[in-house]
């Protein structure tokens, strides 16, 4: 991942040699541990590595006049030579530099003004005009990233020795300077914090500022802004990195602290006003923006704010509402509004949009199969309209009659999705143990090998574009990557500016390439991966080297504890008939190694080790009646509901060896019409012992497992993944920005856990979970997908049980006496170690600032945050009576009462954002892109004993049987969409921070030491996971034995570190993909 910016070690004249040595050692250790990544981290990050200054009596402000810059420069040079500050008329000469990670274009670095505020003396400098400095110069980092820097000498009042904050203002064009001079004559006051101005075209001029560094003869102070500063903002404040509880805020910074929070909170009026690009206000809104049209089949109900459809809140975008409460669509298909500091960095855009180009293939396939006039055929790709238009051009000559993509032919045809990537090793992907030894294929069976323009002569799927079309797409995607840099090209460059990109830019042009100039645009295109590099799917790890794993019962069970959705399994402690199931002992006893269903359930209920486990997806039946009556529901999708009971198998010595499914219960909307005596809560039971032993009915058993995995895929995407990470976390961050200052120790601890979450959720609302978005296209519930999400939130979500130990306890998966899992459960075992490290780190950190529980109760910012999260961010569950009280929902009632409770609240949030999300996200490609392992779609009702479909399946020959099974699963188009989606979602970017990396917001030495200890714990966890994966006793993760074509797969999803790409490992701090 891209290199990190170098950090200055800031040493004050009162810093002891011992402390200096410890800081340098920490910085060196951080450089060793961190993998390279982009310097853009988070808005308002600050870092000043010096002793926290003691409070002193306020000094009398010294106004001072601006000195001639040449004299200042000579004075600073002399001061640095002599080791003394040059003082004249009560002033001291400092060197100041501003650095950015965006390209030097247009008015970049021009018309900036600064004011420095001293922490101890409370003195403010006069306004410093940056245009008096040297012109901005271009800088190139080791990873090729282009940025700029501007530096000069400044004269500060002698009382300024410990800068605590810097005020920054960006002005618009030269025409805006008139009338502003009166604001420049002295130190910026609270009254002149307006002064917002526009450029000559009426839009805001803006700069991305990474750092502001102040250097005196004795100290270096670096304020990390990492923020877009706009001429529409007026004065912005960026604080030094020291953490202060509200009561401990230095007097000089109190007004600035409160003023910054007020700017982010807005007023009751501005919270609901239409958003402008440069707005910074955070507020809450229901999910009323999921419709993709004004009427008809693209309209979706509002989620949140009602008893029937409760839901968390999301960031307010305020485009105005239709009469029915739905938010109006943006004009000209613009992106939904998002605060600029929460958008992806320049490098994140490159990785995210580069990977997303793989989804263009899904756009072509969707248009081919559906001939749909839609601007969002592949939401996973987040494709701009222009790319979709190109896709339509490419497929415009292909008709439905020529469409060979209705079904895969057989299992080998599915595997041919990976033929290009596997090359000469393709035959190694073919299963060796698919059929019992006594089953033989008919001599007359041959593969048909249907021709297709999307296949090569040898049968491999191939979707590459012609060179000219690929170049056109690459250009469009490069334009999308430019982002806010586009707006930086609006103004006139600072005098004397020289950039490698200058010469042919046209700031007034409307075309992106002309406006930026060919040099900058060519640079962006070179850094954007070409579309054709993404048109072959790599072999997923679930298949690679283990071609027989996907069809084995042992693998089905293993994935429930170590796969992509390992947090739904529960211990079975009551007979299935108690919760309305049709599963009985006759269905399972033959597989229980001499025990019975009643015996094993009784032992578990009495506190013994459970040997039977359950995954229950009956909730997927919730909207069957509505779906049947809805004429807008597409044909060719069947929403099943059901359950699976699994048995923990043991060897002759009593050691656990595998978890296998022994009974699968399935139903669909017509099941009870065909079986009127069946309970409404029950389905048809498919017994392993009754089906898997016969080569004919083995196909039924395999199909039952595949249909169940389709349900698992839906619950995973809507529940375990979207609901329980992305969706529920957003209100915590919105309120964090509104109520807790960037100076607060809790903000500095928690902000990394929300990095990029707002953008990824915004993009999901635009093209993933919206009407006709990719989720609706790839799941059986279609337009009811997000209604299921609301139902799952209503019935299952409690913050109190999102903490990993509480979650495991609630599901009966741990021994109450020890807190350890009953079985080899990699997600739980590795996760509990991560949880322990998190809670230990958070406890140590919080006790650096809170000396008693009363200080927690008296923290006004913290308590305002917690109250707002409950009443504005997650109000529905209590308001509409879905929970009895706060204790059930939140774990305790009222304000946060103690350090221990605060640690639990924050650790729960951090766990959900990091470990939980990583476990359900970064294995998606390697498990769910392969439809024989996990098909997102079920297209036909599961056959029942004795019906025509059962007979068709059980009497067919091998290849025909395979073809029939594939008519129940995802078609090639849907498979391509899913592969594109999960490839994108499983992708680590270079600009990503994982738990084994330093939290750069922390400045106080003891806080950094606590963070260092946590990083060390993450490295130790990586080693422990490697050892567990190499231990043959761990049946759910032990590495493959030589020649084993179906053995376990090492569990790496909670291994903290990762490089860029699809790695099936790595735990980022935040939900950032």
TrEMBL record:
Descriptive protein name: Lipoxygenase
Described purpose of this protein according to its UniProt entry: Plant lipoxygenase may be involved in a number of diverse aspects of plant physiology including growth and development, pest resistance, and senescence or responses to wounding.
Protein family according to the UniProt entry: Belongs to the lipoxygenase family.
A molecular-function term among this protein's GO annotations: oxidoreductase activity, acting on single donors with incorporation of molecular oxygen, incorporation of two atoms of oxygen
Positions with biased composition (Basic residues): 34-45
Enzyme class per UniProt: oxidoreductase
Signal sequence range: none
Biased segments, Polar residues type: 175-188
Compositionally biased residues, Basic and acidic residues: 190-202, 320-334, 501-513
Domain Lipoxygenase: start-end pairs: 243-1073
UniProt-listed Gene3D superfamilies: 3.10.450.60, Lipoxygenase-1, Domain 2 (4.10.375.10), Lipoxygenase-1, Domain 5 (1.20.245.10), PLAT/LH2 domain (2.60.60.20)
Region (Disordered) location: 34-71, 169-203, 301-334, 486-513
The entry's keywords: Dioxygenase, Fatty acid biosynthesis, Fatty acid metabolism, Lipid biosynthesis, Lipid metabolism, Metal-binding, Oxidoreductase, Oxylipin biosynthesis
């Amino acid at each position: 991942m891209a290199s990190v910016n170098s950090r200055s070690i800031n040493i004050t004249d009162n810093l002891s040699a011992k402390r200096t040595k410890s800081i340098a050692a920490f910085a060196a250790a951080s450089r060793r541990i961190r993998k390279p990544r982009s310097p853009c981290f988070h808005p308002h990050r600050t870092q000043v590595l010096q002793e926290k200054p003691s409070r002193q009596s306020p000094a009398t402000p010294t106004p001072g006049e601006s000195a001639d810059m040449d004299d200042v420069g000579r004075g600073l040079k002399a001061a640095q030579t002599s080791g003394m500050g040059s003082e004249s008329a009560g002033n001291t000469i400092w060197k100041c530099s501003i650095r950015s990670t965006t390209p030097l274009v247009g008015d970049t670095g021009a018309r900036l003004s600064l004011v420095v505020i001293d922490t101890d003396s409370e003195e403010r400098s006069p306004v410093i005009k940056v245009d008096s400095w040297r012109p901005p110069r271009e800088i190139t980092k080791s990873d090729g990233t282009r940025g700029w820097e501007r530096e000069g000498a400044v004269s500060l009042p002698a009382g300024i020795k410990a800068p605590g904050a810097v005020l920054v203002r960006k002005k618009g064009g030269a025409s805006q300077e008139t009338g502003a001079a009166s604001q420049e004559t002295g130190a910026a006051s609270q009254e002149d914090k307006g002064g917002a101005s526009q450029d000559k075209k009426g839009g805001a001029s803006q700069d991305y500022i990474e750092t502001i560094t102040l250097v005196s003869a004795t100290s270096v102070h670096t304020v990390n802004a990492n923020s877009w500063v706009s001429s529409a903002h007026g004065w912005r404040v960026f604080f030094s990195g020291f953490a202060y509880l509200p009561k401990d805020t230095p007097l000089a910074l109190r007004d600035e602290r409160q003023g910054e929070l007020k700017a982010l909170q807005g007023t009751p009026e501005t919270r609901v006003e239409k958003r402008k690009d440069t707005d910074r206000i955070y507020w809450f809104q229901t999910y009323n923006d999921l419709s993709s049209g004004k009427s008809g089949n693209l309209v979706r109900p509002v989620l949140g704010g009602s008893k029937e459809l409760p839901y968390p809140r999301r960031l307010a975008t305020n485009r105005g509402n239709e009469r029915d409460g739905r938010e109006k669509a943006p004009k000209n298909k613009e992106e939904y509004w998002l605060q600029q500091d929460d958008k992806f960095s320049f490098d994140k855009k490159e990785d995210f949009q580069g990977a997303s180009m793989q989804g263009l293939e899904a756009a072509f396939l969707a248009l081919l199969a559906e001939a749909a006039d839609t601007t969002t055929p592949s939401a996973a790709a987040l494709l701009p309209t222009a790319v979709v238009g190109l896709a339509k051009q490419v497929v415009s000559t292909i008709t439905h009659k020529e469409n060979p993509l209705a079904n895969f032919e057989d299992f080998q045809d599915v595997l041919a999705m990976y033929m290009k990537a596997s090359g000469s090793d393709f035959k190694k992907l073919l299963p060796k143990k698919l059929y019992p030894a006594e089953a033989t294929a008919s001599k007359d069976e041959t593969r048909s090998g249907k021709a297709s323009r999307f296949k090569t002569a040898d049968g491999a799927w191939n979707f590459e574009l012609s060179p000219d079309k690929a170049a056109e797409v690459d250009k469009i995607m490069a334009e999308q990557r430019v982002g806010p840099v586009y707006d930086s090209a609006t103004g006139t460059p600072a005098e004397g500016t020289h950039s490698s990109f200058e010469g042919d830019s046209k700031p007034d042009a409307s075309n992106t390439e002309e406006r930026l100039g060919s040099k900058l645009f060519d640079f962006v295109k070179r850094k954007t991966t070409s579309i054709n590099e993404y048109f072959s799917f790599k072999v997923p790890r679930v298949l690679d080297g283990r071609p027989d794993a996907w069809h084995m019962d042992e693998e089905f069970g293993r994935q429930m504890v170590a796969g992509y959705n390992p947090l739904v399994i529960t211990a079975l402690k009551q007979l299935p008939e108690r919760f309305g199931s049709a599963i009985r002992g006759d269905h399972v006893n033959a597989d229980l190694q001499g025990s019975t269903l009643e015996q094993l359930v009784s032992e578990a209920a009495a506190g013994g080790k459970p040997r039977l486990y359950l995954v229950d997806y009956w909730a997927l039946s919730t909207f069957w009646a509505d779906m049947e009556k809805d004429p807008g529901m597409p044909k060719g999708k069947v929403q099943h509901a059901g359950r699976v009971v699994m048995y923990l198998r043991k060897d002759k010595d009593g050691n656990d060896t595998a978890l296998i499914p022994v009974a699968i219960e399935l139903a669909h909307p017509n099941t009870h019409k065909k079986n009127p005596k069946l309970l409404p809560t029950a389905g048809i039971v498919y017994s392993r012992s009754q089906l898997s032993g016969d080569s004919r009915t083995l196909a039924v058993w395999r199909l039952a497992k595949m249909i169940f995995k389709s349900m698992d895929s839906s619950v995973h995407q809507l529940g375990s993944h979207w609901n329980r990470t992305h969706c529920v976390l957003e209100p915590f961050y919105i309120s964090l920005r509104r109520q807790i200052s960037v100076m607060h120790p809790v903000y500095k601890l928690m902000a990394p856990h929300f990095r990029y979450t707002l953008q990824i959720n915004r993009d999901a609302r635009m093209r993933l979970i919206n009407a006709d978005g990719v989720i609706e296209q790839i799941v059986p519930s279609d337009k009811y997908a997000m209604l299921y999400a609301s139902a799952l939130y209503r019935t299952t979500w409690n913050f109190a049980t999102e903490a990993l130990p509480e979650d495991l306890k609630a599901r009966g998966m741990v021994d109450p006496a020890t807190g350890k899992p009953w079985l080899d459960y990699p997600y739980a075992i590795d996760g509990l170690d991560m949880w322990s490290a998190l809670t230990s780190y958070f406890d140590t950190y919080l006790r650096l600032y809170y000396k008693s529980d009363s200080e927690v109760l008296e923290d006004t910012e913290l308590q305002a945050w917690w109250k707002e999260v409950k009443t504005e961010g997650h109000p529905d569950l209590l308001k509409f009576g879905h929970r009895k009280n706060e204790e059930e929902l939140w774990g305790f009632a009222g304000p946060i009462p103690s350090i221990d409770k605060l640690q639990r609240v924050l650790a729960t949030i951090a766990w959900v954002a990091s470990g939980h999300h990583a476990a359900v996200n970064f294995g998606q490609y390697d498990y769910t892109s392969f439809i024989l392992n996990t098909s997102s779609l079920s297209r036909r009702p599961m056959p029942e004993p004795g019906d025509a479909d059962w007979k068709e399946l059980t009497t067919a020959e091998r290849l025909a049987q395979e073809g029939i099974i594939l008519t129940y699963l995802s078609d090639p188009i849907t498979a391509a969409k899913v592969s594109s989606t999960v490839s994108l979602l499983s992708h680590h970017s270079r600009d990503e921070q994982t738990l084994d990396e330093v939290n750069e917001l922390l400045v106080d030495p003891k806080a950094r030491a606590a963070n260092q200890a946590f990083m060390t714990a993450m490295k130790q966890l990586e080693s422990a996971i490697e050892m567990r994966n190499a231990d043959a006793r761990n049946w759910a993760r032990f590495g493959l034995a030589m020649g084993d074509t179906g053995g376990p797969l090492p569990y790496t999803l909670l291994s903290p570190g990762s490089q860029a790409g699809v790695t099936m490992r790595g735990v980022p701090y935040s939900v950032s993909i």
